[in-house]
């Protein structure tokens, strides 16, 4: 190498191009090119004398070398040319045509790099390295055929990457080369751009299959990362063109071809969105401009385009690791996407929900922002959107849901959706809430925030039982057994969860739970009978009995599943193993672990078609079979009150320091009532503790008593003498409640001489009754029970008892109230626990109990009516005077308000108790029944609530006369929404139940006419009517009456009985008021009002009001027939509604009937009512009086202290 003026000069002087005169053999040519390559490669780029290169630069570009047939010649020539470009950089010593030929040579060399063992692989690597180092590759971007060359370059290198033999060490060099071309090229061929971008899509498919990264994907990543701005512009252009085509394709859908084109273009659009998603994962900067196009799609007219855009952004948000924060980088797009819950299309809204949930799962920090949108879709007008939202929320992990997503509004909304009329939404919501409760149970009731979010779930789920819907009840069962109280083999954990759940139930929730466990014995008995019949030889009577049992069982099962067919097929299978498993589950003596194992085996087998299929017969689906049998087994098995639980429950009930002590005692008490059999193994523990004077509570005594009612022989223990002595001690010195059950337990014992002597000694010990003693109330409770167990011992003391209780307890006060008590005291209350320690109030309550128990004890005696007369008068006086029967003359007036409330409630409840006995029911005349309205409309919330609960219970169980049904209609003015709605639900449920049992049942229709009679005697109605002088006065009278009439019609009227109701109302004008004949005109006024209202209702509902074909007599205790035909005609044609009030009545009646519920009124199957649609009319505002809190009138008391009780 020669050096000239500090520059290096090329030493090589050999000829490279053959001529005719001087041919150069190929071997020699290769040798010369190799020498030249070696020398050129050793020269420094900035120290070369370019003049010394003049000769060889022209020779190297000669086509004889560029297109030489020998690979070696081409390889070394390419290397030499690469160095020439290096020396002349940044310019090239060749024209465009020569450069084009040169790069074609380079490309031909690159194509051969898929073979590392090739003879010239080293030279090809050198070529690639030089081009990358000197950036000489960018020269192709200035050539006329630049697009073709660029396209070829990318095709070659991406092809090499796909070959599988290209060296990974060379990939960085390729990336540099390709990146430089992208950066400098004025235009990138569409094919090349697609080649680069498609690697994102292809790589996704490869990764999904679990393979390694796609070949060539690294090239794409590097090219995009190195040229983010350029690629972003290119991408935006690419998206714009494609979206434009898609939009243009949608402009005209008149022809089938256009529709097909639009579909194809939409498919292409989805590919672009998939590309955008992949770009966000790896090179989010590329979407800086293109995202605006996707944002525009969010507002596109085409629903499918909006769905695609909505879904794509959701998926982008669901990317867990991205260099950019989408909400910050694309704020406008994100904000627009957040508005999609309000999109006009329910499909778009549903897709937004799916996307939002994916985003929450991937990035929980987004949950708070997305919650408001999810709240909107939870209450969406479209049921599909609501269903999608609930189902998608189930896919959020419980931890994320509770800690990030849930808030008070969402949870309140979900609590409403479990009452949703749409079965799938309701079921999905129950599943969601149950799953959340189950997953977070360990945190609930320990963490205040979690408790607020989920602590209410069991209570709300159980209260759904009040809806009285078969499908809802089945959903409640599955949620309760599988999620709220799931199967758990550890006794301590299982019982702890059971008690925890029960402890946090409201009264309604607890009543529902009790109803569920109370159902078990009946279901178990039916299942046992069914399987026993299945084992019998086929016969007509056997088949008939089986059909009846199946009908009874499936009557409470959902109609959406063919449970009857499933049960019939189960019996036809005649699989003894299945029968045995079911029997074991429903056997009250089966332990918990056995039940669990039996259910697991049974459910597993029934879920497979091969195990339930009968050859030659159609088969029910495994789902239907499993659903039916699972529900049957859940309902007939003793799971919650299993004998395996009793020991742990009993232990906790004895541990006063245990946090679940109270709940354990409640459960033990309920067990003793519902399934006392499970106490058999543990009852000795309770009786022994009683015998030894151990820590025994009221609920323990009640448990022993309930068990003893069913198994009296078990109660007689080895320590019987100690047992009797202990009970005697409790009857004298225990609390009043303990004394009550102690005497009841003594009453269960065999009437041995020792037992009778002990009870006689007990009477001697408490006698005479002394009001000053601390144990007076215990003694009073004992006396009350002794009337029922040992009446003979008190026969000679009844006069003394009645005199004492009347003069010292009921007609005087040891605690004096304040005549000017604050208005808040009106609703004051003494709860059950406080009552036990409030001696003076409890004394009055016990005094009433003594009198009532005395009546019960002498019901069959000849003098029962004589004994009952003053007691009934006492109860009537207490109710009628609001609980105040103490005379001011005694000096102990007034009775405290709280006492009065308690006392009138007790009087009402005891009156209902006496009504259970036919002899006393006969003595309870209608005027006394009318008095009970005062309790239903009492000024005290507790009195109304508790009395109504007791009334409904007695009516539901059929313990009292049907004439008491009319009372429930007087909740029309009830100020508490919960009590009013609960009672209305009960009425509808009972009406439906009665009609189902007998489609011709007229109980509520007859109760309706009783209510009308009672309304005409209502004190407030009479006062309003007697004082009415002006039109507005009469409006108040009409409005008052229509409130009750409207409510009753709302609850029981339907298209099938409206004519009967009208007939009954009109029949009232053919009778006199038997109770108060002089006030018959009031009854006629109510009759006219009712007829007018029924006509308005029928017109509003478009019901036919035909003449009732039958003839019914009205209740003889309320109505007296009129025999005078002239008078009957006069009454029939006369309107008792003042003429001046007719216009007001028209407005009131129309307003009332318009607002009668759209709630379905129960009708029998063959009385199906068609759906009526009416155009709503403008509501006319009417002046109505405020809701009443009380109908109690403080009348003067007739104090006759000489009366004997």
From TrEMBL:
Residues 26-53 form a coiled coil. The keyword Flavoprotein does not apply. Pfam families: PDS5. Residues 1165-1205 are annotated as: Disordered. One of its GO terms (cellular component) is nucleus. It is found in: Nucleus. Residues 1165-1188 have a biased composition (Basic and acidic residues). CDD domains: PDS5. GO terms for biological process: cell division; DNA repair; mitotic sister chromatid cohesion. Keywords: Cell cycle, Cell division, Coiled coil, Mitosis, Nucleus. Gene3D superfamilies: Leucine-rich Repeat Variant. InterPro entries: ARM-like, ARM-type_fold, Pds5. SUPFAM superfamilies: ARM repeat. This is Sister chromatid cohesion protein PDS5. It comes from Ogataea polymorpha.
């Amino acid at each position: 190498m020669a050096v000239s003026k500090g520059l290096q000069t090329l030493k090589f002087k050999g000829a490279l191009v053959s001529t005719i005169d001087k041919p150069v053999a190929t071997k020699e040519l290769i040798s010369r090119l190799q020498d030249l390559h070696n020398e050129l490669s050793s020269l420094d780029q900035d120290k070369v004398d370019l003049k010394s290169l003049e000769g060889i630069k022209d020779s190297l570009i000669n086509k004889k070398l560029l297109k030489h047939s020998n690979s070696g010649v081409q390889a070394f020539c390419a290397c030499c040319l690469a160095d020439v470009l290096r020396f002349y950089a940044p310019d090239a010593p060749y024209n465009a045509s020569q450069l084009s030929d040169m790069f074609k040579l380079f490309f031909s060399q690159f194509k051969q790099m898929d073979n590392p063992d090739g003879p010239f692989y080293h030279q090809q690597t050198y070529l690639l390295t030089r081009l990358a180092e000197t950036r000489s590759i960018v020269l192709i971007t200035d050539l006329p055929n630049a697009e073709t060359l660029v396209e070829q370059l990318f095709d070659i290198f991406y092809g090499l990457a796909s070959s599988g033999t290209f060296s990974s060490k060379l990939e960085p060099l390729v990336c540099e080369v390709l990146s430089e071309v992208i950066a400098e090229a004025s235009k990138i061929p569409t094919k090349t751009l697609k080649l680069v971008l498609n690697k994102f899509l292809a790589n996704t498919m490869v990764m999904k299959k679990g393979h390694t990264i796609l070949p060539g994907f690294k090239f794409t990543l590097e090219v995009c990362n190195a040229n983010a701005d350029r690629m972003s512009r290119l991408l935006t252009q690419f998206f714009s063109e494609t979206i434009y085509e898609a939009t243009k394709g949608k402009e005209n859908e008149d022809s089938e071809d256009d529709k097909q084109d639009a579909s194809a273009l939409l498919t292409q659009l989805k590919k672009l969105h998939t590309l955008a998603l992949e770009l966000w994962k790896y090179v989010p900067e590329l979407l800086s401009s293109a995202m605006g196009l996707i944002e525009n799609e969010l507002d596109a007219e085409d629903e499918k385009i909006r769905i695609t855009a909505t879904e794509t952004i959701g998926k982008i948000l669901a990317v867990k690791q991205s260099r950019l924060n989408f909400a910050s980088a694309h704020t406008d797009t994100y904000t627009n996407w957040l508005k999609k819950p309000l999109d006009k299309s329910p499909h778009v809204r549903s897709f937004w929900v799916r996307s939002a949930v994916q985003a929450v799962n991937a990035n929980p920090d987004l949950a708070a922002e997305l919650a408001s949108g999810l709240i909107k879709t939870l209450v969406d007008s479209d049921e599909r959107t609501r269903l999608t939202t609930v189902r998608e929320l189930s896919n959020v992990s419980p931890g994320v849901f509770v800690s990030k997503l849930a808030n008070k509004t969402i949870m309140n909304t979900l609590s409403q959706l479990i009452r949703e009329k749409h079965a799938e939404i309701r079921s999905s919501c129950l599943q969601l809430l149950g799953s959340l409760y189950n997953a977070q149970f360990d945190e609930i009731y320990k963490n205040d925030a979690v408790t607020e979010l989920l602590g209410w779930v069991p209570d709300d789920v159980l209260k759904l039982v009040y809806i009285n819907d078969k499908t809802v009840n089945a959903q409640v069962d599955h949620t309760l057994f599988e999620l709220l109280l799931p199967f758990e083999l550890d006794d301590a954990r299982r019982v702890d969860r059971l008690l925890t759940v029960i402890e946090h139930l409201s009264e309604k929730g607890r009543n529902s739970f009790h109803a569920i466990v109370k159902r078990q014995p009946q279901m178990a008995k039916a299942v046992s009978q069914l399987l026993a019949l299945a084992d019998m030889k086929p016969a007509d009577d056997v088949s008939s009995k089986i059909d009846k049992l199946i009908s009874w069982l499936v009557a409470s099962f959902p109609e959406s599943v063919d449970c009857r067919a499933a049960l019939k097929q189960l019996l036809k299978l005649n699989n003894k193993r299945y029968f045995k498993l079911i029997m074991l589950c429903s056997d009250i003596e089966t332990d918990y672990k056995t039940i669990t194992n039996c259910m697991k085996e049974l459910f597993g087998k029934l879920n497979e078609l091969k195990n339930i299929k009968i050859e030659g017969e159609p088969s029910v689906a495994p789902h239907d079979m499993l659903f039916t049998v699972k529900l049957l087994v859940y309902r007939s098995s003793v799971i919650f009150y299993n004998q395996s639980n009793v020991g742990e429950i009993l232990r906790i009930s004895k541990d006063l320091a245990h946090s679940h002590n109270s709940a354990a005692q409640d459960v033990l008490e309920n067990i003793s009532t519902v399934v006392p059999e499970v106490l058999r193994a543990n009852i000795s523990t309770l009786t022994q503790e009683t015998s030894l004077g151990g820590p025994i509570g009221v609920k323990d005594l009640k448990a022993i008593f309930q068990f003893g009612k069913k198994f009296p022989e078990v109660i007689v223990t080895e320590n019987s003498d100690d047992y009797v002595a202990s009970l005697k001690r409790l009857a004298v010195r225990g609390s009043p409640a303990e004394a009550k059950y102690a005497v009841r337990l003594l009453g269960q014992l065999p009437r041995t001489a020792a037992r009778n002597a002990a009870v006689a000694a007990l009477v001697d010990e408490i006698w005479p009754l002394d009001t000053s003693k601390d144990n007076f109330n215990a003694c009073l409770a004992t006396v009350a029970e002794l009337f029922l167990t040992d009446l003979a011992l008190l026969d000679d003391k009844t006069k003394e008892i009645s005199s004492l209780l009347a003069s010292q307890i009921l007609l005087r006060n040891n605690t004096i109230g304040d005549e000017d008590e604050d208005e808040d005291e009106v609703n004051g209350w003494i709860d059950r626990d406080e009552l036990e320690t409030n001696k003076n109030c409890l004394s009055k309550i016990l005094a009433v109990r003594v009198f009532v128990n005395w009546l019960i004890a002498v019901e069959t005696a000849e003098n029962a009516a004589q004994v009952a007369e003053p007691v009934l008068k006492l109860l009537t006086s207490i109710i009628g005077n609001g609980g105040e029967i103490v005379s001011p003359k005694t000096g102990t007036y007034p009775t405290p308000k709280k006492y009065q409330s308690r006392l009138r409630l007790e009087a009402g409840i005891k009156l209902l108790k006496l009504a259970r006995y036919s002899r006393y029911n006969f003595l309870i005349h209608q005027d006394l029944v009318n008095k009970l309205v005062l309790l239903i409309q009492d000024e005290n919330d507790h009195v109304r609530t508790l009395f109504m609960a007791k009334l409904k219970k007695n009516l539901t169980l059929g313990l009292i006369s049907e004439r008491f049904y009319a009372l429930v209609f007087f909740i029309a003015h009830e100020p508490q929404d919960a009590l009013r709605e609960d009672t209305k639900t009960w009425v509808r449920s009972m009406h439906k139940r009665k009609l189902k049992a007998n489609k011709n049942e007229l109980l509520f229709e007859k109760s309706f006419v009783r209510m009308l009679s009672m309304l005409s005697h209502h004190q407030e109605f009479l006062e309003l009517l007697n004082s009415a002088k002006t039109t507005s006065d009469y409006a108040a009278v009409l409005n008052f009456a229509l409130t009750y009439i409207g409510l009753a019609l709302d609850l029981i009227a339907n298209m099938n009985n409206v004519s009967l109701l009208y007939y009954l109302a009109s029949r009232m004008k053919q009778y006199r008021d038997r109770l108060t004949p002089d006030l018959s005109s009031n009854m006629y006024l109510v009759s006219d009002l009712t007829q007018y209202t029924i006509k308005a209702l029928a017109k509003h509902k478009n019901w036919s009001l035909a003449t009732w074909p039958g003839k019914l007599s009205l209740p003889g205790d309320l109505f007296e027939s009129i025999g005078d035909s002239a008078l009957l005609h006069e009454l029939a044609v006369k309107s008792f509604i003042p003429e001046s009030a007719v216009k007001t009545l028209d407005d009131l009646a129309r307003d009332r009937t318009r607002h009668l519920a759209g709630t379905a009124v129960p009708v029998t199957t063959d009385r199906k009512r068609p759906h009526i649609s009416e155009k709503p009319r403008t509501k006319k505002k009417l002046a109505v009086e405020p809701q009443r809190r009380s109908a109690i009138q403080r009348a003067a008391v007739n104090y006759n202290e000489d009366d004997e009780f």
